[in-house]
Amino acid sequence: MLVSIFHPLFFFSLTLGVIISISSPTWFSAWIGLELNLLSFIPIIAISKNSFSSEASLKYFLIQALGSAAIIASASFMLISPLNTNLIIESALLLKLGAAPFHFWFPQVMEGLDWFNAILLMTIQKMAPMILISYTLTNTLNQNYLMMFALISSLIGAIGGINQTMLRKILAFSSINHMSWMLMSMSLSELYWFYYFIFYCIISSSIAILFLFQQAFHVSHLSSTSLTSLTKILTLISLLSLGGLPPFIGFFPKWLIIQQLALNLQVLPLTIMLFAALITLYYYLRIIITSLTLQSLKTSWYKLQLLPAKLFLPILMMFNLSSLLVIPSLVFF
Question: According to the UniProt entry, where is the signal peptide (predicted)?
């Protein structure tokens, strides 16, 4: 009963905190929005039925409080020191995002969440810090500083997910890798960031919802004989789309960023990010091959929600296959 009553209220205040942060004229009001967002997300984590939710909420609170304290401390540094305080604010926001090398908390918190809260952490919770980061990119120093974190995040997100077998940790490291593309697009243009963020939110949410329907938390759970062929094929397409493999729809925003980096002659950052993207495709393919080639009997944890799945799966199929028509038309016309 507590979940049904208070969950929409906390979700509304969480969204309100994001809106306050991205529309605020001062850093103080942006900080207030971030705090409202934080204090709304912690109860959403804590009231879930996951046994690790309390640990995840405590870790999330400590990290976010540290980032908020750094934002407040930057005001004092602005008065006593001529240092570029935007670098301090930018570092605090990157800590809140979980970008490498501040990524240590992100996979651990993801492991303690259910799939719905994992979707919130991967999508909505990234919106306000990323938009606030765009406000700090006032000179070349800040842009180069952000590019350095983007390249580190691409490598950490790719290498960290290789040896993982838990699906939530794999999506966590995948999110860190995609964060590097979003940070790089932010240094190029806010419009490119908007395109990438929208596509990433839709694709990552669709994969998490697929895993929610299947009640899958481990790679071996995707090998169940109870899963239909349509579900397995859609999981395959969604993972390849998340990895940015052409001609799936997830390649479209990466294509824009690759084109812009090539036009700016930024060959080294482009090479590093493409190399990291290939590594992420490797562990996506490992999940796909495992689910298609291995078979396990139906277990006690498996409970497929048939009615939502029947309504949702055709929509996902149409979205992920739409790029088969969109991208060729963009090439020829």
Answer: none
Instruction: Report H helices in the chain.
Output: 2-23, 27-46, 53-80, 85-97, 106-111, 115-122, 124-136, 140-160, 167-188, 190-214, 229-242, 251-263, 267-293, 306-321, 323-332
Dist CA 304 CA 297 (whole Å): 14
CB contact at 8 A, 44 and 11:
yes
User: Exposure string (b/e) for 75-114, b if CB count within 10 Å is 16 or more?
Assistant: eebbeeeeebbbbbbbbbbbbbbbbbebbebbbbbbbbbb
Work out the number of other CB atoms within 10 angstroms of the CB of residue 12.
11
3 state DSSP class of 18 = helix
For 63-80, what is each residue's pLDDT tens digit? 999 999 999 888 777 777
* 96 close to 65: Cβ distance less than 8 angstroms: no
pTM greater than 0.85: yes
Domain count, the chain: 1
DSSP SS3 for 218: strand
Range of the domain at 304: 2-332
Phi, psi of 100 (to 5 degrees): -65, 145
Angle at 118 (CA atoms; ends 249, 296), nearest 5 degrees: 80
Contact criterion met (CB below 8 Å) for 174 and 165: no
pLDDT tens per residue across span 129-141:
999 999 888 888 8
State the Cα–Cα distance between residues 2 and 261, nearest whole angstrom.
Answer: 49
**C-alpha to C-alpha distance for 179 and 181, rounded to whole angstroms:** 5
Distance CA 107, CA 320 (A): 26
**Tokens 């493409």 identify what position?**
274
Distance CA 325, CA 4 (A): 42
